[in-house]
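To illustrate the input format used throughout this study, we show a single complete record. The first block contains the structure-token representation of the backbone; no residue identities are included at this stage. The design step must infer an amino acid for every position from geometry alone.
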């Protein structure tokens, strides 16, 4: 029964006080019909109709069934970290036509608790056979439910028990909060080493950790490596902090109802995972590690479907904290690579709510994720697709034209934070990405009850390492970094990348009024040169262009990435957190496309000492001119928490834009199709880039 039906039934007696029964049941039927109309028809249960469709329920079951039947695994000690579509090679997707047969493979990543080993399996879902089953040496997978073994081991450790006793804490009243030790640890790289801090079980104050007592625990050898105790200097007293509880802290709105209706239907069609409108065609998917993925974006340029973007996703999300105490210094979370974008526990993910998360005119897509036992778990309304009015698309005097955008949105919960991912497709060819950050900020217990200078807690030159949001509750300074992998195919796969900087023209006879400024273009020739940083003072952005033809004006047909607000990491170069996230050394990376290069911090980023990400891939300085290129963009925000962010944070938004720059001959909304862009014949030189100036310093 749809959720909306259950909600209405629960409130039946309250509603019938206002409406006669017949009217009530008419409303009930109307609500059910409306919900059904907005759902993409059983998209997660049907047989895949496209090689990029996410795994369905039966395919997830087949992965486990085949591994068990061939005695590769057992159900006692093996756990599934990932069951994912193994995407076909890009060359196959680019030549695929509806009706063609296609390969269908799954990638499974498993951890064996009995041996402490990690395995990768590739399963042919068409032939129903296992193609490979390999031990991946030197690494361990991300978070698993079995990591709660820390509780058992620490409650047998005399030093841990002594630390609790000295604080007057009953060991049965606490459990452990833990995080991968990573570069701060000392166990072998393929061990599951955790840095642990006690926290009360009581829900009133369990989020306020018992600071000053920390343990290193090796879950592979079942050993407590060491316990550190500051003697009770850290705050450890139970405190009812009135932590946000949605069943109690209910927001009350005085707003009048706002319903967006489209009586003639939508201006786009949603067929399974494919979205089509008059201007755009693209696919959406769900990756068990990365969350929502956008595929095969094409723009309808007066009947010509021109490729723009082959694949876009959040390839990694990294959240480091900035307090000096060991507990919070260890909070360096790889929320994609270690925690599957919050999808490691699908049971805590809620579907998008019409009228709250997204407008009431939204259409929804449901899909299947999986739990650690390899069982499929359906998640309803995990993606929404809808139209929105963006105000005037263009305006001059009495003339104006509405901006009608196609929006695709996804929300997930990663522990205390909630993240929205919103792709906005504009009619003029612009694509906006907006991240929405909300949820509950990370906190620590402190001795002070005021942020006035001279308090009893540690400071740097009188400044605390976080903001007091309640007595004894400090919200810790931290950052969020989202690393986007953008496989742009601008009019094809033979692209080049240029950097644009705006500079003031020096005073001279050619600039007599000393007012001129100009843009300077620099060609990125290889992967070494493609490691770039932002520079707002020069309006720096990057253009990905077709290398084999120009528009009618002789300009490179390109898309530009337009940065918005951003951040750089504060952890020092050479520190543990910086080593773990070395992909943040540059905010932009340009690489030549490779089938197996997907995640900038590597496939298993929480594993100490293993490097297979961007810094490793670019070490050979491969040429990127006229190649199929991938642009990696690191989007960051530094969160110095406000008191207004407590007990739950209102949404904070950041993002960037992909904007056509010479991709069209003129405004594609206003003009008819003009003369086609000048085509460069095969064998002739690439567009002249000899006038490009050398790349500025980073």
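Output of the design step:
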């Amino acid at each position: 029964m749809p959720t909306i039906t259950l909600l209405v039934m629960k409130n039946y007696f309250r509603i019938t006080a206002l409406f006669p029964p017949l009217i009530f049941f008419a409303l009930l039927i109307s609500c059910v019909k409306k919900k059904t109309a907005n759902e993409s028809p059983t998209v997660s249960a049907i047989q895949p109709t496209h090689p990029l469709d996410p795994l369905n329920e039966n395919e997830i079951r087949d992965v486990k069934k085949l591994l068990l039947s061939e005695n590769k695994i057992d159900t006692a000690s093996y756990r599934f970290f990932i069951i994912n579509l193994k995407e076909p090679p890009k060359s196959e997707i680019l030549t695929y036509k509806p009706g063609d047969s296609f390969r269908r493979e799954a990638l499974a990543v498993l951890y064996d608790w009995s041996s402490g080993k990690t395995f990768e399996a590739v399963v042919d879902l068409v032939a129903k056979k296992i193609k490979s089953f390999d031990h991946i040496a030197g690494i361990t997978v991300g978070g698993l439910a079995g990591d709660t073994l820390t509780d058992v081991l620490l409650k047998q450790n005399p030093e841990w028990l002594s630390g609790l006793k000295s604080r007057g804490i009953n060991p049965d009243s606490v459990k452990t909060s833990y995080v991968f030790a990573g570069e701060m640890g000392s166990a072998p790289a393929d061990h599951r080493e955790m840095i642990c801090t006690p926290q009360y079980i009581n829900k009133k104050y369990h989020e306020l950790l018992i600071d000053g007592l920390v343990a290193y625990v090796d879950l592979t050898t079942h050993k407590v490596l060491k316990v550190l105790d500051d003697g009770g200097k850290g705050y450890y007293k139970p405190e009812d902090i009135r932590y946000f509880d949605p069943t109690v802290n209910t927001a009350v709105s005085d707003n009048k109802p706002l319903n967006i209706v489209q009586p003639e239907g939508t201006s786009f069609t949603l067929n399974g995972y494919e979205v089509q409108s008059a201007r755009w065609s693209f696919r959406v998917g769900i990756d068990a590690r990365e969350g929502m993925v956008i595929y095969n974006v094409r723009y309808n340029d007066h009947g010509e479907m021109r490729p723009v973007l082959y694949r876009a996703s959040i390839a990694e999300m990294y959240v480091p904290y900035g307090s000096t105490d060991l507990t919070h210094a260890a909070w360096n979370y790889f929320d994609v690579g270690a925690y599957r974008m919050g999808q490691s526990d699908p049971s805590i993910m809620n579907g998008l709510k019409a009228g709250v998360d997204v407008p009431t005119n939204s259409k929804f897509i449901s899909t299947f994720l999986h739990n650690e036992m390899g069982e499929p778990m359906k998640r309803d309304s995990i993606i929404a697709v809808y139209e929105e009015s963006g105000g005037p698309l263009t305006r001059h005097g009495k003339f104006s034209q509405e901006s009608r955008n196609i929006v695709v949105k996804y929300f997930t919960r990663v522990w205390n934070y909630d993240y929205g991912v919103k792709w906005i497709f504009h009619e003029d060819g612009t694509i906006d990405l907006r991240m929405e950050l909300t949820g509950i900020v990370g906190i620590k217990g402190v001795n002070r009850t005021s942020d006035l200078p001279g308090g009893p807690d540690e400071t740097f030159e009188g400044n605390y390492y976080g903001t007091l949001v309640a007595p004894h509750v400090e919200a810790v300074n931290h950052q969020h970094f989202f690393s986007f992998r953008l496989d742009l195919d601008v009019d094809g796969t033979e692209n080049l990348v240029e950097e644009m900087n705006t500079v003031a023209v020096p005073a001279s006879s050619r600039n007599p009024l000393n007012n001129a400024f100009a843009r300077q273009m620099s060609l990125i020739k290889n992967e070494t040169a493609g490691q770039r940083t932002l520079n707002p003072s020069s309006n720096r952005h990057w253009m990905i262009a077709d290398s084999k033809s120009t528009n009618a004006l002789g300009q490179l047909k390109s898309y530009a990435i337009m940065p918005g607000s951003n951040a750089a990491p504060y952890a020092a170069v050479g520190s543990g957190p910086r080593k773990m996230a070395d992909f943040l050394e540059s905010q932009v990376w340009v690489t030549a496309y490779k089938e197996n290069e997907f995640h900038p911090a590597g496939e298993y980023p929480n594993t100490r000492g293993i490097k297979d990400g961007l810094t490793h891939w670019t070490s050979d300085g491969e040429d990127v001119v006229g190649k199929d290129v991938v642009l990696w963009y690191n989007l960051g925000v530094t969160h110095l928490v406000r008191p207004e962010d407590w007990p739950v944070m209102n949404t904070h938004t950041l993002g960037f834009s992909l904007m056509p720059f010479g991709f069209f001959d003129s405004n594609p909304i206003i003009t008819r199709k003009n003369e086609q862009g000048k085509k460069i014949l095969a064998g002739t030189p690439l567009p002249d880039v000899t006038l490009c100036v050398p790349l500025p310093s980073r």
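Structural context for interpreting the output: The radius of gyration is 27 Å. The CA atoms of residues 526 and 687 lie 17 Å apart.
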